[in-house]
Amino acid sequence: MRLAHAAMALGMGVSGLSVSAEALAHPHGWIDLSVQVMTDDQGVASGLYQTWRMDPFYSLVVFEELQQVENASLEQGLDQLGKEIRDNLSGEHYLTEISINGERQALGEVSEYTAMERDGRLVFMFILPLETPQSLTDSTLTYQVFDPTYYIEVVHEADDNQPTDDALVLQGGPACELSILPANPDPELVMQAALLDKGESGEPGLGRYFAETGSVDCTGR
Questions:
Q1: Is the pLDDT of residue 160 over 60?
Q2: Residue 129: beta bridge partners?
Q3: How far apart are CA 59 and CA 96, in angstroms?
Q4: Using CA atoms, how far apart are residues 92 and 82, in angstroms rounded to an integer?
């Protein structure tokens, strides 16, 4: 199995793909993200239902390569791709950090996922469970989704630079205040990222400073 450079940066294994890093700018691609925070009627959070829409260029290359695989339909290729993405992301904590009242939460393993084509874009959808469900009563849940090396940029779905209504949704549970906080990296880090060559990734941890933060504030409600 050969792995695309861009896919490796995300921990995503893609059979037979050979995306050229030289064809991409830095960040070398992006993901449009939407998140549903899953809770029950008592306000106990069980995980995040995430939808990742890969950028059009990366999606195009993936679909072209999948269509060239002999004796396999696009649907079969996407099924295999989804499994490889899930398997490789599992070693990277699914590029996701979740905290409740500032305390980092342990994550479970993803068992529900799918990869599909939608309007010319590769879409990967999955449920990322908390290892132990947690009550959001009088609590604040925050999360970040990011590639540590900042090879890929992850941003919430937006329209005119404003998050869309479905970029962050609370599924079930109490009425809470939802917000998406923009990244505010130090200018030196912005310069560091800008100086990376086409084939380079940043130092591990760089992506954190460019990550948006989703917040579900249920305090006093």
A1: yes
A2: 47
A3: 22
A4: 16
What gap in Å lies between CA 140 and CA 218, rounded to an integer? 6
Q: What is the largest CA-CA distance in the chain?
A: 58
> pTM for the full model?
0.85
Q: Residue 16: which residues within 8 A CB-CB, separation 6 or more?
A: 1, 2, 65, 66, 68, 69
Distances (CA, A) of 147 to 46, 51, 154, 186: 23, 15, 7, 18
**Residue 22 above 80 pLDDT?**
no
Give the tokens for residue 38.
Answer: 């899953």
- Alpha-carbon distance of 204 to 126, in angstroms, equals 24
Instruction: Decide: residue 72, CB within 10 A, 0-12 exposed, 13-18 middle, 19+ buried.
Output: middle
